């Protein structure tokens, strides 16, 4: 069994830090991990729990979580609460270079390291989650953790097996007290750029500050606190909450769940309740450990009496976290969720510089309860700046102002206003703080290390492909080589989830669990679009491959498509072809199965003619990569900057461009690298690409029009099974094209095909025209004239870089019009007479005088932004 070891530097059984650990650890538990948590009693000294045995702390936590700790720390010479307190005060706070203390920190860290490693070995730990270890409460233990991580990771051959999450950092947690010294906090151990650690912070501001402090960090991400968005409700198990705490059923209830310490400013809540008298008989429930700071608790009790609100204030003691469940039957006593079910509002009137995230606000939002708060230092960063709404007490105010009290009173007495506010926050919260984003991040971060023999990473972008995915993964899992199954140790699959909502990820996880030898890694890409997903997958695979142990052979990044099928020897033939030709890119062969078009001979004829043309030109020129299947040498991929995403305007909004695969091939070829066609590596195209959009294929607008090319979902709304789905706007049953539709479909296909596949290669690489097979295809005279004309156009347009999509379209289209008759003659001679002649010219060019034809072709083709040339040539190449 996999084991997650959690260590909290908070030294308390219930806190925001522990709650966030529970939320994250639940994801691990659901995926089969045993979860252990060290509460940090033997780390942080100010909670008065050093070396204290655990008692009933487990009752407050889920039953799938086990409490653990590193044994033998009380046997480390000199290590104890006094030592930790002395180091924090002298070395960290005052910045004194006390030689004896500093030497003790180093020697203690080494002894602590040995015990930490021994504990991890004893529990066979496979992942570690450190909570708040950067905060310099105990720099000896922080250093010990870094030492233990390096030793254990090296000993076990682990990759990034540690998630190191910081909830509070020196500039976020009481900076005005000077407890941790002053910026740049010289005594705080800087984060180590370790191959075993991935750092997490809670918001962008913390990430920026962390990068300023430790710019060398190569692995750091933002993971906001997450919440299970379930509205708080009165139900069996918590229905008696108010009665059990002597709170009348008909009064507004202000909920405050927090530590009872001076920094939390619970006195503000007491003043608020007093100020509300006469407006509403509001009660206050304070959930927190009254024994943590007895003096502060006593002060608050006395203040309540002084203000005359004792009968309206309940100090309810420590409640189980919101995640623990509902009611006494779910554990020992009530939980925060039960309090929220009865609360009218949640209060968070904390100190200005004490909070970093403000979990109670997030829990209120996720539970459908309004909140009120102070504008603490990071409130706008986490909540206010993201559009969340509630009464806010300005930072400069010590106690609630009359205006603030009025806002709160209006909220408490107006159920409609509360419902509107809660609904607004709830909707926004589901997108900002959902559990799914944590799962996607963990999917990306918690990966097994790449084996030293892996030579290929297959990148598979996926969006709502739960139905197709099992067959696709099965075909990738059971690839064959020349002598039997293709060794799983030679390749991996990187599945890029592009915001799937149909259970796709669960399908992937089940498949991975059922095929343990098959390396299936899952990452996510939030920006919608197959181009963005493919780019993210290739960047990830490239970075991941460079961290693998050993191996100096070439490494290949491979693109696959989740709605197509690869042949059993697809990957081997691609790998062997790349290895033998030393190509920068290897392009697969793509085919349809003719039986899918039985009864539709005119449609099949248009497809078949296109495939035959492609086979000829790909053999001559190498072709351009198609996302359905190609490979690229990783070093070439990195050198040209990877896949580039272009953006276009559609209906006033920027959308990403579909042709990332072609654009990438252009970048590679324009850089002087070779592209080779590998026809024995074959991919079967899903016929739904034609079936579902056949009317748009005929009209040449399957992926856009008027200059805009974007991916659209070509899946039908229902499916009848197999690879030929029906539904949506697809005609029921196999319906062939009419003669006019067949002619139009072919014309758009050949118009799209010819500029891209016969002209563009030589435009980018004129030296191809000197190669004997290419000269044989064009004929010497046409090849020479094409070469001269390409040089003229390049000089005329002053094109130094032909990589952007609109830059290469213009000259390709111009050359097409100028040489169409001769190129079609060569296609007829090479492919077959049925290729025919060029489709009719655009009407605007038909009456242009012959001596000005080139001039007006230029005007026409450069009008690409309005889409005239785009619409003429089509955009699909969908056959």
UniProtKB/TrEMBL annotation:
Superkingdom field: Bacteria
Keyword hit for Glycosyltransferase: yes
Keywords linked to the UniProt accession: Glycosyltransferase, Transferase
A GO molecular-function descriptor: glycosyltransferase activity
UniProt-annotated stretches for the region Disordered: 717-736
Domain Glycosyltransferase 2-like, residue spans: 457-626
Gene3D superfamilies, sorted: Glycogen Phosphorylase B, Spore Coat Polysaccharide Biosynthesis Protein SpsA, Chain A
EC number: 2.4.-.-
InterPro entries from the UniProt entry: Glyco_trans_2-like, Glycosyltransf_2, Nucleotide-diphossugar_trans
Listed Low complexity bias regions: 717-734
Protein's name in the database: Glycosyltransferase
Organism expressing this protein natively: Micromonospora zhanjiangensis
Lineage: Bacteria, Bacillati, Actinomycetota, Actinomycetes, Micromonosporales
